[in-house]
Structures are given as C-alpha cells and as structure tokens.
Amino acid sequence: xxxxxxxxxxxxxxGLAREVAAAVRPQARRWDEEESFPETSLDVLRxxxxxxLTVPVEHGGRGKGVFEACLVLExxxxxxxxxxxxxxxxLNGPPRALAVVGTAEQRERLLPGVARGERYFAIAxxxxxxxxxxTELTTQLGRxxxxxxxxxxxxxxxxxxxxxxxxxxxxxxxxxxxxxGIGAVVVERGQPGFEVVDTSPKxxxxxxxxATLSFEDxxxxxxxxxxxxxxxxxAGARLLLRQFNPERCGNAAMCxxxxxxxxxxxxxxxxxxxxxxxxxxEFQGLQWKLADMAVRIETARLALWRAAVSSxxxxxxxxxxxxxxxxxNEAAQFVTNEAIQLHGHRGYTRDAPVxxxxxxVRGMALAGGTSEILRNLIAEQVTGRRFSQRPAVTA
Length: 395
Hints:
This protein is an alpha+beta fold.
C-alpha cells in the first residue's frame, strides 16, 4: 500500500491475528444468538499472546503502538466482532491510558495482568445525563470527615462492565462543574459498594453486554487514583478526551474488519449465485456495488492508518482520529447494507452472517463519539475555532 509498507514483524502480527480470527469465527453466531460473553474466544486470545501487544515491555508486554493494535483488531473483527471488542479493551482501552498517565506503582501493579490476559478492563464514563457531553458527569469522589475517599454515582452502557474485573471510572470533585474537577480512579470488582445493576439488550455486538453500574460509598485509596479530581484543574477532562483516541482508532479498525468480511462474503456469493442463466457477479450493476464497497473500505483503512501513526502527547492526534472513525463507521454501514442487498432475501435472514455484520457495526457510530460529535470536532480542526454546543447565556 502506498505510504504504508508493513515490516516483517507487522506482517507476522497480521498472520497471527488471522489465525485467531479463523479459530473464533465458528462461534461468532453463538455469542450473538445467546447474548453470552465469548469466554472460549478470550481463552484463544490469551493463548495467542496478542493481549499484551501494547503493554510496555517492562511490564510483560510487547510495547507496540496503536498502529499494530489496529492491524490485529481488523483481522479479529473480520472473524468475530464480539471477540474483537474484548481484544480492544486490552489493546486500546484503559491500559493504554495507564501506560501514559498512570503512576509507576499503578503500571507495575496493573499492567502485567493485562499482558497475561488476566486483568480485563472496562472504561466507565457514560452516565444517564452525560453521553456526548461527557463533562456533565456527576459521579463524585469526595473525602469524608474520616478522611476516606468515597466514590458515588451511576454509570450506564458500559461495554463489558458486567464481566470486567477492573474499571477506569471517571468522576469529579464535589461541587465542581464542567471541565474542571474531573478525575479518574481504578475500581476493582468485589469492592464493597460496587454493583452491576443490570445489562441492556441491544441490536448488535451482543456477545459483550453493556452494563449499568452503581458506586455507593466505594472506598478508594490513594493508590487507586489515576488523576485526582481538582476543582481548579482541567487535567482530568483532557485525559477524558485524549484517552478515547486509541479506542476510536480501534473502533475504526473493527468496522473495517467487519466490512471486509461483508465484502469477501459478497464476492463469494455473487460468484456462485446464478440468475437468468449466469452468475450474478457478471451483471454490471452488481459489479459497481462491489467496487463501491471496496473503495469505501480502502479509503477508511488509509484514514485509519494515518491516524494510528500520528501522535499528540502520547495518544493519536484528535483531528486524524475523528476523520478515521467517521469514515470507517459510515463505510462499514454502507458496505454491510450493500452486502445484504447483494445476498438478496437470504442476506436478510440469519442463515447468512451479513445481517449480523450490519447489526454489529451500527452501534460503533455511537460508541466513542457519535458521527455528529465527530463532525463538530473536525469542523473545529478545519476552521481553527471552538464551537460551543451549549445555549448562549443571556442577561
């Protein structure tokens, strides 16, 4: 590919990820239909050694970057989206943020378990009143009269929150508002006051549930505080925004992987399906569909690779990342929808996987920044201006 020549190690990683995808693909339908967590697929991921890919070498990982993680996630998603979402949390989730901004003690205590595939993180940011407007979160971390830090609040739609054993929870200092006073802490399953309230049935990616989590007077010691909520600081808000960029790249990579699977299935199907006495791939109108699908995938991959190799303060650049996620999200929706059309009524049934592909990618345009929010971010980048979405305050 022009401008992006993979080295031998990167091609080896791709090959290993393809082997993992082939191993987990036969169970993809099961996780979707049963809405059950892909435990055996997680075992395959552990055995592959890929879960420690982006963990620093000194903590037992391979020390690779977001680019390599995206190469791996594309391949795995082409086999099973649920498995890729699990891998995403290891490769581009909270461990990436801890590796950049965590304390030396936190990195030493938490990251070796990630490298071994034994510590499964989730990120807890979204709240009933704080979705796209993340700085409106209300979960509080405050010190009581006894001097103990306690966490109180509710989080919703937390991907893998019912299964994760460790969570990076965004919170704020009591009395703070807006972008000031936001911080982040690590909470572990089993701590008193932490509870998984329920999970939300959803349209796609059903093998990894989205959970509502409750934190009621959860005691937090100083070693669990990643960024202290400081009413006079916006450091936590900056982390909140920046740590999403590796996840956004991973989101884009997974969309590309599923779209690629949809295209490959469509090529195979149109080559063997006959109507009017010949394979339907010979009809020009269907050839154009395949061509358009391929162009969308290639364009998205180029945008993603540019984002994945960029860097701002240890994370992929915001502008490149917003473009990559937007292009990949919309490309995947287009490609999987066209795949259903190319398969005819069979594509609309659950006999073929293309209807699952469509469902799996649809939610990716909501997670980690909606298409509308991404367009706002891109507009800020190209105009050099900040546009507040809040109503103007009048006297």
